[in-house]
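[job 4471] stage=fold_predict status=RUNNING
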Amino acid sequence: METLTIAVAEVDSHISSFLQESIAIHSSFKIIGEAKTGEELLELIYLERPNIIIVDYDLPSIHSTIFNSAYKDYLPAFELILIGREKKLAIEAFNYSAIGYLFKPIEESRLLSLLYKIKESHSIIKRTTQNGKDKRILIKLSNRFFYLRIEDILYIEIIARKTIIHTVKSSYETTEAFLSFVNRLPWYFYRTHRSFLVNLKRITRIELFGESYLAYFEGTDKSANISKLKIREVHSLLIR
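[job 4471] inference complete, writing structure tokens
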């Protein structure tokens, strides 16, 4: 049985102890580190790459680090659970693509419900993967699940914290982290731009567009951005 790793970012020692004690008896999860500031959490995420982070919304410097878009686009993928006291927490959890939120004082049943929800989703994703390459990929849309054939995906982009998956006929908007798709898809899905992950096998032509480039695909007018810093690498990959 795979164990999901957790990083805890909480300044209240009583809450930290509660989380440690509540999670320790469940073999499906393991806390691998704690942080008291946003900077400490940022370092922990880069070093340990936890599957889940549990974060106090009022943690010092949290909004200038992992909640800052300058960092967010480059962080390893993880599932987020927020902790707080105010009613606006539910809205903020949605804005930051959190899997859920915990009001103080924390209810153990609510904590475990969220953790096992993540565990179930993680297991479903893993079952759809064979030899590191997905034949189909699971997309979570609100309370629904879609299974898309990887070959049908043209590109994936991130717009205002929303991840959008494009096929020839449709587009699917999800709150799943953009970087989670970077980690799950085969090598030929290449990050041509900080906000675009493109299926190189579906590109039919590339055109200059201002200071950058646009990739086009057969059977549609949709296009994806290619940074001028990436164009040489894209050309090399397309002819390999």
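[job 4471] summary: The longest strand covers residues 29-35.
[job 4471] exit 0
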